[in-house]
Records
---
Amino acid sequence: MPDLNPISLWQRLLAAPNDSRGKTLTMAFLVSFVAAVAVSSAAVLLGPRLDANRDAERRARLEALIADTPGLAEILPGAGIDSLEVLTVDLRDASLAAALDPEQMSELSADDDIAGIGTRPDLHQIFMARDGRDLALVILPVYGQGYAATIRGYLALGPDLNTVVGLAITDQSETPGLGATIQTPGWLALWPGTRLMDEAGDIRVAVVRGGASTDYEVDAITGATRSSNGVQNMIRFWVGPLGFGPVLDALRNGDLP
Amino acid sequence: MKAALKPLLDPLLRDNPVTVQILGICSALAVTTSMSTALTMSLALTAVLVASNAVISAIRRHIPAQIRLILQITIIAAMVIVADLILQAYAFAISQRLSIFVSLIVTNCIVLGRAEAYAMSNPVGPSILDALGNGAGYSAILLVIAFVRELLGFGTLFGITIFPTVANGGWYHPFGFMLLAPSAFMLLGLLVWAIRAWRAEQAEPTATPVDREGVLT
């Protein structure tokens, strides 16, 4: 009968020659297992704090985006994002929804998925500011695949819902000094005034190499083509027909309040 | 007593990982624009180094030779991820400024170098001392470079104004070059030169011997 006493098994393992096949496999498994447990426990234990930090960071960036938008401070009743109107919208039919529901997702086909996000949540919160009864500002949350990881941000549109008044990048892990330039004030300052669509309704906004020449173009970052394209595709997707396009149309026509 | 502390004291100057072995240069250049990022990076690297040296030394007799490097990297990588998560949880602002350089500790040659060169063949106690010594040696160089770069580049130390800059109504014109990576290269070069001029035994032979095939020997 084989000896299954764990203590003697352990002693046999320690006594086994290091180069034996059994000990090599056991050591590889044990080290990976302990490492995996350590990393997972750290991630789970620290998870709430990490989420809180990231939320605070996003909020701060959104506040900064609002603070940098000219003329907005005068029309907002209070300060900061609490004075913005929050609308929960359903992207499937451009209607209002009661509350966010992360369970409701739509699969995107590879051709449609220019932002590289795989599945699209159907319900989103957008932020709005009004001057009297007219829209003054709409802020859309946007995200998409960058070079290293997902890029997240907020896109602020003016009253015509076609002119960018500001872009904020809240999360990115691009290469420091190259792709991470997408988060610098200097590059983000190129965005205000950029237009998204032409009169025919085609999405024209683009990040171009070699100098932006039209209202639809923004200079790409030298040496960071994939980060630049990531931002471009993320904006194109989210203002497009599968993103907030129908919602923006509804806002324009007055179908949404 | 002196011999027992050798692993702790040697790496500070005589066998400094940065200025003598020229390891860990990438992060030494990247995170030294301010004292606070350099100090955080130094603490993170030292913590990872101590923990990895201790663990690897503790199980050194049972690490099969063929897979020793991958086991070492697994242990180091797990510790780096944990250190990165702790920083993100408790020092979020600084971890954002350090960006990917904390996770790049895993590729820092000092950590794997100490595991392979010391912890694999020494008991836990001396391995921890060796890790502390190398961590301190790395930290000392980082802090010296960050001191010069932050003082000349921003006129501040740990964010506290030392030289009031012209932009804030003072007299100091910030030396913008100090905020770019090449300045760190030059400062590091000057530091290595100064140390080797003072301690001539650290200097390498002037000509690198090359055999007839052009291979470095």
---
Amino acid sequence: MMKILRKKIKGQEEMVGFALIIILVAIIFLVFLSVYVKKPQSENIDNPEANSFVQSFLQYTTTCEQDSENITIQRLISKCQERIPCSNKDPCIILNNTIKSIINESWKVGPTSYVKGYSLIINVGDKQFLNVTKGVVTNNYKIGQQDIPNPKEESTLVLFYAYT
Amino acid sequence: MVNKSAQMKNKKIFQLPNKKNGQGMKSKISPASPFAKKAQMKIQQMSFMLIAVFLFFALVGMIIITVKFSGLKQDATDLRDRNAMLLASKLANSPEFSCGEVYGNQKTDCIDEDKVMALKENIGKYENVGKNTNFWGVSNIEIRRIYPKYENITCTPVNYPKCDTIILIDKPISGFDHSNFVALCRKEKYKDEVVNKCEMARVILWYEEVK
């Protein structure tokens, strides 16, 4: 009788030991898993292609005329803010149309293409001045930005997101 | 007699070393006893458990290493693409291509189209310089206007500037390419005045396939 009892107690001890090992291993595995899941999949940092795009398109010569010279998009943004017409044309309409045409030709958006969508945002100070968005907005994106300082007014920030 | 000699041998196996005189010490537990058998079983159980735990950790470790290495490969590809794009920008900002201060302030990612057309005529001077095929170490350089477009015409001194693509090196294009956006600027006559005109373009660098 005593022998059977002793054997039972021994068996229980071993089972507890085994369970403890399994719990320990499970905890270690969970720690590894949580560390891996917490790590961001991809960091969306400034991309040279998106940055070059922003730099280049700001230098584009528009159809807006001032002092017998066509001005760049960079200057047209401030003109649109100040609502100064260019040769009887609305600078904001020219700005909007030019930006849309340039982006459409530069970034081919579609479900089968690498770029699924894009957003061009122009912020003046804390306020959003212009937002051109097309296609699907995803969590993976290339970002390009340029800050245009303005000594008279609030500085302008041009942001471009290419969603992949 | 046989049994006795066998018992003696077993006893020798279970002799523990004596630190003082180097002679063995007789074990109190006989190998034939049920305690010894139980201990052997325990050792066996423990060894199996250790092997199982070791295999489990090895498996988990292998999975983690695989996952980490797959990410590393993607990082390497991203870095290579990033460097290639930066090289395209670096080329656009080199003295042979850059706008400098001709179009106002110093601009980045700006290519002087007039300068590039002049360079195209003298590209022979840049051949066989350095280790690679030419000065820039690429097989070809192409500048393609993307906005506005002129029916995909290749630029020559005759049709310039109403053309789209400037191919710098007159060789068949092969291998792989990397490209980046640039502003393509030139001087233009407008109402009897010389004005600046900048358009959107892509600078494309072609590399030979490594065999």
---
Amino acid sequence: MREVVVISGKGGTGKTSLTAAFAHLAESKVICDLDVDAPDLHLLLDPAIIRDERFISGHEAVIDPEKCVGCGLCASMCRYGAIDEKDGVYSIAPLRCEGCKVCVAFCPEQAIDFPPRHCGQHYLSQTRFGPMVHAQLFPGQENSGLLVSRLKKEARALAEEQGLDLILCDGAPGIGCPVIASLSQTDLAVVVTEPTPSGVHDLERVASLCDHFRTKVAVVVNKHDLNPDQTSRIDALCSEKGYTLLALLPHDTAVTEAMVRRQAITEGGDSAIATKVRQAWQGITNLLHS
Amino acid sequence: MIVSVASGKGGTGKTTVTASLAVSWSRPVMAVDLDVEEPNLHLFLKPKVTDTEVVTLEVPEVDESMCTYCRKCAELCQFKAIAVMGRAIMTFPEMCHGCGGCMAICPEGAIGVGTRELGVMERGVVRGTLPCLTGRLRVGEAMSPPLMRHVRSRMRAESAAQSLDVLVDAPPGVSCPAMSAVADSDVIVLVTEPTPFGFHDFKLAWEAFSPYEKPVAVVINRAGLGDRRVYEFCAAHDLPILAEIPYRRDIAEHYSKGMILAELDAGLGDLFSKLCRDLRELAKEVRNA
């Protein structure tokens, strides 16, 4: 079984549009949306949910006002500034609480409860391109990395069960917790970038993250014709670092038009950009079997 | 006043808007990049960096000669950063959230303070006058919120001391980094694009930020692309659309050269000057309400 993750560092470079096209082109795969914070792949794939589960992870501290004597020890120990005091009454701001349990353990009155935290939902669905696992983290929640790991585990189990040999993942922007979790056991990271200072800067950071975790990198340059100098810089970076440059995609409103129709760019005819995307997918297939 | 520029979806133009506001702002202002995973604001504002500070997190450092293997630290730790197995104690500093619980609970005082590097905070000056703060997460570091907390505390101290307004470039998304980035702000600017992805993530962000009860203003980027649903939503929810940046190839090319949008032509200059005035007005209305 092989695992491919489409990431970018910078947001909005075209990860999801490209992943949807790859989902259309690939055979025998589980589709996985690992951008659990702001997932968008479902907008193109229109999944029918088969299973809907709560994602419970970690705990949150809650002060019982009946038991609290207002000593303030919890507020003085909390490193996250999560405990507010107003007129001698203490309460915990859920968005700032990291669930470390320090206040719970040290409260002299045992006045702080520590219930499990419901951080989001995760789903198993069916789409026109095959089975899909996806999720939605609730706003402001942590543990996005754990939810990403959970989804990957489910995708592997599903692939195993149905005899599918590829897991195709849409990743999150950035280089933090969810992106690190998405790279675990991944055979290939496809980094989508654009020929702009931000695109190049963020490609360098996310690709060096992949190097750090020894994940193979391949690059797609979207809107390559916007700035030929920056595109050459990306080309040079790929040669220097040994990343495969898979494709140069043109700046084309066909991508947004397909999105508005809720289609992958490779569905419904062969535009110039669709041909390039097919070539990119062929390149990925070759890399996975080399 | 503190204005945060956020979006939900990445790549909608947060940095473009923040950089343009920074050069158009009529009062003394400070620009702060809180997208510490992928900071880009400096690529456009090009600050002259005056100092760089390494930011660290306190993690446990065990003096095993004093440890009695009582396990109290491991039982308290919620992040699997410290483990006791028989007569051995191990720490996993990369898992640590820096809560300090193990240090406080150890009855033998065997756990001292070590550090893990989170990244750096750079302070710089743009065009000789405009202070700029950037957090940059170390590649391989998973946790951005503690670095962001550090930058935010410097931001609050410096802006209060010098009576500066603040423009914050926030990270994308609506999970804990994005939420903590906008926590200090007086006004939140949501930058979106009129596409299905842009609209979907815009709604997520609007819902996520609503418990803060802060005024939200909308900037639509790439206007003319996609569909009308974000306009209908804003009208239905009384969200003011303060600016529309047209979908134009020359704008994308200008951006690809690392240049500031407000300086492309007079029309765009006026658009951002007006946006600055409208944002100040919005903050004033809220203060007086």
---
Amino acid sequence: MSGVRVLVGTRKGAFILTSDGKREQWDVSGPHFAGWELYHVKGSPADPNRLYASQSGGWFGQVMQRSDDGGTTWEPVGNEFNYEGETGTHQWFDGSQRPWEFKRVWHLEPSPTDPDTVYAGVEDAALFRTVDGGQTWQELPGLRTHESGPSWQPGAGGMCLHTILLDPQDAQRMFIAISAAGVFRTDDGGKTWRPANRGLQSEGIPDPDAEVGHCVHNLAMHPSRPNVLFMQKHWDVMRSDDGAESWREISGNLPTDFGFPIDVHAHEPDTIYVVPIKSDMEHFVPDGKLRVYRSRTGGDEWEPLTNGLPQSNCYVNVLRDAMAVDSLDSCGVYFGTTGGQVYASADAGDNWTAIVRDLPSVLSVEVQTLP
Amino acid sequence: MIRVKLPGHLRKLAQVDGEVELEVDGQPTQRLVLDALEARYPVLRGTIRDRETQQRRAFVRFFACEEDLSHESPDAPLPDPVAKGAEPFLIVGAMAGG
């Protein structure tokens, strides 16, 4: 019988939650790498037993872990992330220039076809790739050395490359997002990049519709329709219908359009999910109510999903990589909170239950649909 | 023989219990001890000092003989009791925050 494996990264370790296709009874394993920050744990679509985890901490830096048995055992792999060539500088909060300095891996994006190939988005923003199962990592320097690089500056969470979308129909095309530089697109496998932020409007930067400098929080794509992209920006939920050539706002009737994650239903490319957050000053859900908002029209019209979610005295946040969907017939939706709850819906968001309630603050949630 | 005591997270990463015992050729220094440690446990590369610059990570401290050696030159000789194995060389995660 089919099942799911939910990979949860937290501030103090990783947890693996497994269930059969009903998604009612859950086994919880962990903490793996107890005491460390797990920014991201993700499985290979080509080999579901192959998992990669980014383990880091302020004291001892970055460690990369790999599992070949679905997370039962782990082995440390390469943790050498050297920027290629001249490091260069980027802008700091005070306007001065700072050299690029590696801090941690935020996001891992395994290849859809090769378990040994993984892209890694890091802070300070750059894109790396391994083709040997994580033993060695090489930068794709065309992104960091883009002519706009010196003008990039950190968002509040650091200058991180946090989102990587691989076009399932064109292996040469990728989209990435950096806080706070924005979206970049490559059409040649990562050699050259161009900004893809036309249509974004951001207050708080000198030129609100600048080519770069936007604090994009997350991107999502349905694999059947790689020209349609959805974006949760610092403020504003956006959509592109032309592969990020241009964007338009689809915030519609959301109670607030600030937030972090955005995701797409596995079988309905126009059904999307966000979690509105009160503001950039108050990083928690509005009115003490945890509400996922779903649009079945590709944006503009949104409905709150509340059944099973706390509707009073709730002040959690949901971070950008902390939402995921499975691909079972009835699409499952999952998200984790800064309060340590991981919620699951086995019916596309209509009803929610907490799989676990008391984990450390959740940094990332991914799900694997198992045969 | 040099005795090195690792912090808990790094003992777990290196899969060791208790102290690590290392042989260092010549007069032991921080650099030589760390070189020998990383050679035996490659997983520790990058966790104590930067792989490129060999700068100590900001929140790592080196103690021995009740002294903080963190700001000593990495090429300065280690105290005699450490060099002779009477005292361990302590690698410590700094107390920072809560």
